[in-house]
Design goal:
The chain is mainly beta. It has a single domain, classed as Porin (Beta Barrel). 8% of the residues lie in helices and 47% in strands. Strands 5-6-7-8-9-10-11-12-13-15-16-17-18-19-20-21 form a 16-stranded antiparallel barrel. It starts with 8 loop residues before the first helix and ends with a strand.
């Protein structure tokens, strides 16, 4: 049975007051060894192979970084109390006694890679890079933990070095969570800040065991002439799905197995965590604002899990094997996103004379309405996890003059994308993954983009892994069809 803690009336009022305060002032990651230290347990308690979560780890994440049915004996690093428990009974005549983590809740993830890349363009020209030692390629600093019974936090600062010798630092995540505010436990939770939305739980980069993410879902840019051509490497502007959002999200687990999430965020584009090097700041938005207009994206997801451990960690009536990655389950759901990019100008070049308009290359283009609708499914059978997403995207693209006064054309473009991935545990230290992606752009004259990704992972220790990964992508670029192949040897350590 899931433990339902008693909650004083003032506790609920206080949680809502804190939430209102934070709202008035305005929640790819990897394993967090912070919690291994807090509970004196291994990273594989929550991960099949980090950062991929096993069923227990998914429940831990959705519970606001708390163990399912957590007891005080499980916590080895005691929290620092910020006041007496008695203050709760007299609030608001006393400040609510929250908690801080017992030690500095910090962790570091280091990624090093040796990269081989071969790119062939439509004319047969070939570029090959041999054994590029990207030591390090990326360093992530994490902070995560709980603040009392109903609050949590997570932040990630990423520093990456570029091939040109430059480097950059980005706040990839910074969010606060408010868990089990009212109703049944786990039923109503809120996150606010910058985060990877639960819309993608299970298939966004921060939850995948592979080095490469799903380009066809997250890096395709439909804001081009006729919705194509496609080159993921040059993706910019409004993309198919934002990897991270700045917004507010509500989510919860009902009856142990039904999951829902609903969120409101800055629109896809500038300020959403997406690279937008084609954004024309001179014609859109107000200086100093994250969002370039007042429109917001809204997104939602509903899904249900049959069999296996409950999404909140419930195991009543279920017999699970001792290996925590194994179970027999099936999870299926629907997801969707809708937004409005009116007034947000992006530049697009008519390479092949696709339109009849004054010669103003590059042109100004706006995505005045976009929708994304998808189906998610995940099947786990013992050592095998087979999962994937089918996504349908629709964009209303307006082509405008440089002064934004003349509308040359407006048309709807629809693209389709899907991926299917199989992860298999050969033995706990040895795991393999195979993924196939296909993207059909809005322009039917452009060939679909097909991508294959193969990964072999050796988990040398619970917090140290080696990966050998092969990726092949047939891409339709501005100058025709080409192929990109890469073989990466990756070392990742979390501590």
């Amino acid at each position: 049975m899931i433990r339902v803690p008693s909650q004083k009336p003032w506790s609920l009022v206080h949680s809502l007051a804190l939430l209102a305060l934070f709202l008035g002032l305005t929640t790819p990651a990897s394993a967090f060894p912070i919690f291994a230290r807090k509970y004196h347990t291994s990273c594989v308690t929550c991960h099949t192979v980090y950062p991929k979560l096993n069923p227990f780890g998914e429940a831990f994440r959705l519970n606001g970084y708390r163990m399912p049915q957590e007891t005080e004996e499980q916590i080895k690093q005691r929290a620092v109390s910020l006041g007496s428990e008695a203050y709760k009974r007299v609030w608001p005549d006393a400040v609510w006694p929250n908690e801080l983590p017992g030690n500095a809740p910090l962790a570091v993830n280091v990624k090093m890679a040796s990269v081989y890349n071969s790119a062939t363009d439509a004319s047969g020209g070939k570029t090959v890079v041999h054994n590029d030692f990207q030591f390090p390629q990326e360093v992530n600093l994490f902070a995560a933990g709980t603040l009392g019974e109903h609050m949590s936090f997570m932040a990630e600062l990423t520093h990456a070095e570029g091939p040109d010798g430059g480097s950059g630092t980005e706040i990839e995540h910074a969010r606060l969570g408010f868990e089990s505010l009212f109703g049944p436990e786990h039923a109503f939770n809120i996150r606010v800040g910058k985060f990877a939305p639960n819309l993608y739980a299970g298939f966004q980069e921060m939850w995948l065991m592979t080095d490469n993410g799903v380009d066809s879902l997250f890096n395709y840019n439909p804001v081009t002439f006729k919705g194509g051509p496609v080159n993921f490497a040059d993706s910019a502007g409004i993309v198919s799905l934002p990897a991270r959002v700045r917004g507010v999200e509500v989510y919860g687990v009902l009856n142990h197995r039904f999951f829902y999430t609903f969120g409101v965020s800055n629109k896809i584009g500038p300020g959403s965590g997406v690279s937008t090097n084609t954004f024309d700041a001179s014609t859109s938005g107000t200086a100093g604002n994250f969002g370039a207009n007042n429109h917001k994206d809204v997104y939602l997801r509903f899904d249900y899990k049959f069999g296996g451990m409950g999404l909140d960690g419930d195991t009543e009536g279920v017999t699970l094997p001792p290996e925590n990655w194994r179970e027999k389950s099936f999870r299926i759901g629907l997801l969707g996103l809708k937004g409005n990019g009116t007034g947000i100008d992006f530049t697009a070049t008519d390479v092949n004379g696709a339109i009849s308009a004054p010669d103003e290359n590059p042109y100004h283009m706006q995505d005045t309405s976009y929708t994304r609708a998808g189906l998610f499914a995940s099947w786990t059978y013992s050592d095998l996890n087979l999962f994937g997403v089918y996504l349908n995207g629709k964009d209303t693209l307006e082509l405008r003059s440089a002064d934004n006064l003349t509308l040359y054309s407006s048309e709807d473009r629809t693209y389709k994308a899907f991926f299917v991935q199989a992860d298999y545990v050969i033995a706990p230290p040895f795991q393999v993954s195979l993924r196939y992606e296909k993207l059909s752009p809005g322009d039917t004259s452009v060939e679909p983009v097909k991508t294959m990704n193969i990964n072999f992972t050796y988990l040398a220790a619970a917090n140290l892994k080696f990966m050998l990964e092969y990726n092949k992508s047939d891409q339709a670029g501005a100058n025709g069809f080409g192929t990109n192949k890469s073989i990466n040897t990756v070392l990742r350590a979390a501590f």
